[in-house]
Amino acid sequence: MKSNLAEKRDYVSSTNACKACMPLGACLAFKGVEGCVPFLHGSQGCATYMRRYAISHFREPVDIASSSLGEGEAVFGGGPNLKQGLVNVINKYQAKAVGIATTCLTETIGDNVPAIVKEFVAEAVLDGSGEMPSLIHVSTPSYAATHMEGFHAAVQATVAQLAEPCTRHNGINILSGLISPADIRYLYEVAGDFGIKATLLPDYSRPLDAPASAQYEILPEGGTALADIKIMGGAKASLAFGWTPDSQAAGRDLQERCGVSLHGLGLPIGLRNSDAFFSAMEELGHQETPERHALERGRYLDAMVDGHKYLSGKRAVVYGEQDLVIGLASFLAEIGVQPVLCASGGRTAGFREKILEVTSGLVREEVQVEAGADFYRIAELSRELAPDLLVGNSKGYSISRELEAPLVRVGFPIHDRFGGQRLLHLGYRGAQELFDRLVNALIAKKQNDSSVGYGYI
Amino acid sequence: MDQVIFKERKDQIFEKGGDKPFRISCDKQSLAGAVSQRACLFCGSRVVLYPIADALHLIHGPIGCASYTWDIRGALSSGPELHRYSFCTDLGETDVIFGGETKLTRALDELIPRHQPKAAFVYSTCMVGLIGDDLQAVCRKAGEKHGIPVIPVMSEGFKGNKRAGYYAACNAMFQLVGTGETEGIPPMSVNLLGDFNLAGEIWIIREYLERMGISVVANITGDGRVDDLRRAHGAALNLVQCSGSTMELAKMMQEGYGTPFMRVSYLGADDMAQALYDVADFFKSDDAMERAKELVREELARIYPRLKELRKDLEGKRAALYVGGAFKAFSLIKAFRLLGMKVVLAGSQTGTVEDYEELASISEPGTVIVDDANPLELMTYLIEKEVDVFVGGVKERPIAFKLGIGFCDHNHERKLALEGFVGMLNFAEEIHATAMSPVWRFTPRKARPFLEEVAA
Fold it and tell me: Quick check: ipTM above 0.90?
């Protein structure tokens, strides 16, 4: 059944956006660099709004500095404020790096951030050791794309500005895109089990999911070590997760400048994507998949069989960042759930083709694909498609409530549940967790809707 | 301490003590690089107008400003819920070059027929302030075309701090005031300004006033309605809470329509009771005063036994406050006193010199008063002052929790009514729940003494 609404033209306005803005993505990425303070060059509100948005998901301090531009600076340029802000952040936070992202304000007034940063490095007098931290700058005008492109742009800028061509070493780079702290920890574990020294960029697994500490850590520990970033150009390969061109940007830069071979893989969500990831690891680690992971795969396959009848033929609405949705659609199709609608606020070309490719041969209905969608549009289509469940971030909750279809929360942000930072999505273990949550959501629905109150389902 | 406080910010912090004269500097642009807890002018406007539930709130700008303000407040409506949508023109790169006026017109043409609002507020953002869209003209034309007021809110983020945003919001609302009929409004009537109906709080206050025989004309803006705003000038008195956000509107109405105003607070038993007595006094009504006294007696009797129980555990504990407006801090200091607790740190994002002066006068010696603080300062004072419970918003929460300190959300996201007498009890329960949780005994900063005690 294809919705006839599909033919309608795009709305001019956005209602309940299925995306956030570029600087947010950049800030998240910079949180994953050792000793790095994200710094927004713009008005004060941007930093505060994004802190609030991220804190509500991670439940961790997320300090984001701002150049706090006012009316005068908007007219005469924000250079002096940017420089003053950098001095303040470097001195008070003892930052090892500052990740400077622009905003729509500073992009529109045309501040030349690379030039201002260069001047700053030449002129600045700092407290303490006086050592100049790494200053990474990235252009992220909010109006240009979504938080996902902002994230990739920041990773690419970090690599381009800090990694240098160097002697070949045995390590690999993993450019994961926006995944959870639990996912990051899992990837390190897998790499370790293969005996591979992996540099994950970014790695906010500790800064954004930190243990309790005796003191407030001004600069939380963790993050990809600056020394490791510096030698990413010497790695024997880079794995970059995602099908969108932006997800490959940092890997491409390393390939072109430093000759690091680039393996583009989809986000390892579900069986086939995880298989692809593990086979890449086998190749790079020169060994077979260690038994514990092979067993996890086996148990997952066993669960797929045990649970298939709860899922077979169920229909799901999936939304979020494009690469996440592609991964989820692939996973859902494998387990017999029909993704009836795959939607994203992102507009990168090729989304539809990729969704059709990953679901091909596994689904019975044509998948409706919507790029540049907002939640008003997703709600409108969902009413017509009457899905059994939704899979996405917490922002689809109102649709789930209206349609009385369970929402299985994944990705970012999750603002209405606890523990979003600890959700695992990747690999066999992540697939198992997603699978269990999906099955249980449908069982709970059946149990709650039943007048009998079954004790065995 | 010195290494934490920026030299540029030294005069924005005051520690009460001895004969030291009060002095504080405030209402300034935030210091670059200081990680201020404040937002921007746009935020100020958006929070004030947000709860008007039958208006279309269209953000003219890039998507971020809309995404981060989508359904973020606990502001309830008894009817329409248009305020819970996040409408945006989602400006893109071509709009920066060619201007956003056409897109804005088309967005209004699309949204107004679709949602049938009673009015539309169009919020300007940084970008719009720079590309030079003529918001006034677009709004005027759209208003004529659709037959509803379409009101521009001049809320470009960079044009000032959050406080300036309040002013822009008041200006926008004032365009509605006076455009409706005032027939049938009884003489003992008020408007409620500066209450945002978080968790249904304005309904508690309305019920109290009704019990005193006083009618409410307009809620401004919690559970707010456009038509009520239009006839708000027919009320005999404006009750202004959260003085920062709506005081300007009260002043405009006094000047334009001669409506007197009175500052009130519904937080804490002391201030709640005082507000009701002040209203009865204003109307010089013995009947209303009698009813107010009866109401206060009844309500206090209902909450007092439980408050006494809670106080037993809380007596002597230390609290810190960091809130949006300083006015709220006055009430909280009194509310904490009722619980036997002492406030040792009080700060706000948008206080005025007068606010801080009053804050200092009711504070105990040793209390730190801070304007426009940041995580480093808050962290330092929370430790130095040995705080047990911190009251703030979402951005302050992880600072408290990382330090192993209790926390109470008193900001716009809260889902718990804290106004009125019932709110005082809720507040006490909330403070008790966090302060008395056993988890603090296990967190690293306090675990060692506790574990040693157990071992002994």
Answer: yes
